[in-house]
Structures are given as C-alpha cells and as structure tokens.
Amino acid sequence: MKKVVIIPTYNESENIVPMIEKVFSLEGAFDLLVIDDGSPDGTAALVRGRQGDFPGRLHLIERSGKLGLGTAYLSGFRWALDNGYDYIFEMDCDFSHNPDDLLRLGREAEAGVDMAIGSRYVCGVNVINWPMGRLLMSYFASVYIRTVTGMPVRDATAGFVCYSRKVLEAIDLDAVKMKGYGFQVEMKYTAWKLGFKLKEISIIFTERVRGSSKMSSSIFGEAFWGVMGLRLRKIGPRGGRQIPIEPK
Questions:
Q1: For residues 32-51, average pLDDT
Q2: What are phi and psi of 178, to 5 degrees?
C-alpha cells in the first residue's frame, strides 16, 4: 500500500529539514509531498536540496504565493490520487503533530477506518503550551460545530488526518468551498455525510517551538460562519455516482 504525507509550508525553514528527516526515519515507507506557497525564507530550496537523498520519495509543489491551506491540500490530494497512493495523510510542519503518530493513524486506516483523525479533544483536552484564550476558542469551536452539524467528531478542525483513497475519490474536490481551517471541517462533514467511517485517535498537540504561527481570527471566522452553510448544502458523491460504502 502506497502512503504519502502532505505538508503545506509557508516560512518553515526552521522546521522543514528536521521534519523531512523524521518522516523518512519512520517504519512504513511513507513518501512526503511538500506544498510550498512561495516562502521567502527559502523553505522550498531546502526541500529541493534534500530530494537527492530520497529519490522518488520526497516531492515538492511550489506555488506562487499564499493561496490558502485548503487549496494547498486540494492540490496535494489531486496529486496523490494521480500518483496512485492508497493512504493520504495531512499534517503540520511545525511538530505540533508528532510524526510518530502517523503510524497510529495508518494502522487504523489499514484496519478499515476510512478517515482516521488525530484528535486533541476525544479524551479530554490534550494541548500543550497554548494560551488559554486560543485553547478555549478552539475547544468551543468544535462544540459549536458538533451542535450545528450533528457530526459526531469532537475535534472537527483537526489537521492531522489519514484519508483512505476511496474517500478522496468520492468527494467532489472542485466543490470544496472553505480555504482555511474551515476546510478541515468541510472535508470531515462531507465524508461523514457520504457514509464513510470516521474515527478519532487521541493525540497530544504541542505548540510549535520554532517559527511563527499562521493562526488568525479570520481563519476561525471562516470556519464559524462557513459551518452554518454546511447544513444547507446538498452533498453527494462526485459525479453523482453511487459509492459502495459501509453504513455509519
């Protein structure tokens, strides 16, 4: 089974090389796709400099500027499908997600889970070194999302996810509307409405040590207002075809 980890980057020169080395040190033969949005700090150049060390396994898509987290992942998903990957992972570059947990998410996917979610809130609150205000905003955002959508996911904005190929094949990627952290909500909600099996796996999320956070109030604002529209949207499989999936 082919596995690829997709990591969007913007000004992650302090983290990208250690992350590359860590991912390729793991068991399980993960490939890595970095999608860089024109980082002025030379992040993409650092990736290119290591591609010779991991031929055919370290890939890079360079974009012209900051085009949004969601569009980066959508580009990565299309690339992964075109290149025959069976399991597609998404994670941050700043080590807030522990790369060792890729193995745990992958085992769940191989056991039959369609979307394995690295969750900060499925077993209490597992966040380290966040300011209280940010923690409360994130936690209650997930409560709000569950209330509005009815989706039984406690960490709807989680960005540490393993998708099985059939989920991304079923979702109409061209119809995904939200671009920031709302993108994470929209993808989970769409997969859930299509009947795929979602499972949260408890992780510990640690605030970055190197580099600066890309979080902003506008990112949360998009998720807040965008969620209201999800309940009103008609969701079906891509192309209107029937997808043979197990019921929830």
A1: 97
A2: -80, 145
